Description:
disordered N terminus, alpha/beta
Amino acid sequence: MFKTQAHLSAAAFNHHTEQTPLGKDNLLSVFESLLTSAALVGSLWFLTLRYEGELPPAYLLLSVMVFAITFPGKPRLQTGYLPLVIDIAINWAWIAALLALTGYSTGYIREFSGKALLAWVWLAPLSELAACMLLRAAAPALLSLQGPPQRALIVGMNEQGVALAEKISASPLNRITCVGFVDGRSTDRLAAAAKQHLLGKPDALASLVKSHNIHIIYMSLPMASQPRILHILDELKDTTASIYFVPDMFVTDLIQGQPGSVCGMPVISVCETPFRGFNGVLKRVSDVVFSLLILLCISPLLLGIAVAVRLGSPGPIIFKQRRYGLDGQEILVYKFRSMTVTEDGGTVTQAKKNDSRITPLGAFLRKTSMDELPQFVNVLQGRMSIVGPRPHAVSHNELYRKLIKGYMVRHKVKPGITGWAQVNGFRGETETLDKMQARIDYDLDYLRNWSLKLDVHIILKTVRLVAKDSKAY
């Protein structure tokens, strides 16, 4: 008879430790994806320069082939040392065999130095192994560059919720810390090992998110709980936390809704920023490049406005006002002073038509939006973006977050100098709740459908509208 054996997963058989994705916004995942290709191509170029003294076209073509075959690389940061060596050796054997077969069958191998290719056979895997070890050593420093870990909370202390918490705690490189659970059941019905992590009941979820500074919420609830889930989602619209579903279920009104995984478990995002991973890099690079070019071009104009503001009326040249930025954190936003007052307290009155507080020069600056030009410095600081939801005064935020559902979701991205709402007719005063609701609807529509093409369209439309817009005062 066969003897029973302990359960062994295929992942454990192949790697001894199950590999889990690090996430698109994790800097380590970027280096992991490039590591194999960089090591193999880098070692090839080193040997080519040594034996050939230059990089002939044949070697460049081979480099392109190697990169195409090996990119993106496999996740190996959590693999044991012996499995890592075996995995690199096996993968390199397959790649080398494929390249050799292609070279011999096409006759193209005659274009290469035999000594260089022979040296590359052993140097390539050693280079890849050395690169892996170097990345492991640098991993803590790379993680620290990305700031503190994101704090997560799981709604539903069921089997898959507890499994997700265990996977998160076993994967420190994912930059996620599980703070605890929220569950409406009595403690005697919950898993004994998980009771100590119970933070409260769903009714107090919104306050728990704020008091524990939660960045991510995982909804591990059954599909039959749809009414309760919708109620929880309504409550969470007053927070800036990213929301994911662990069960496979359908939810309407998604903000960047798409499937993904956390530590190997499938999740569905319900409310997330569009600027994760490559999109985040693309957005930031475009902001910095455009801001530098614009500031370089308008620097004489900025100097002239600064002098005019100083001579036109008493008070500072730059007006600094507290606004809500990314994730609802307070930031200082710069503007040329256009009023005789610099309100930034608990009550801020929006500017109105023929407002007596506005200076003659200020009226012109506000009409042409030139009072906003110093905010390109805010963009370079990383506080703002060129395109995004316009930042409101803190007192206005605190008022409207209580009146408009989903108001705080607009802070999943950095505030912008111009936005989708502004180019669609909602620039200037929002004296009624309906107008503010319409502005928020456009802001959320921007989050759902962001693209670089949309950003460029908004920028160009802003330029056309500034000169003739009568809603700014």
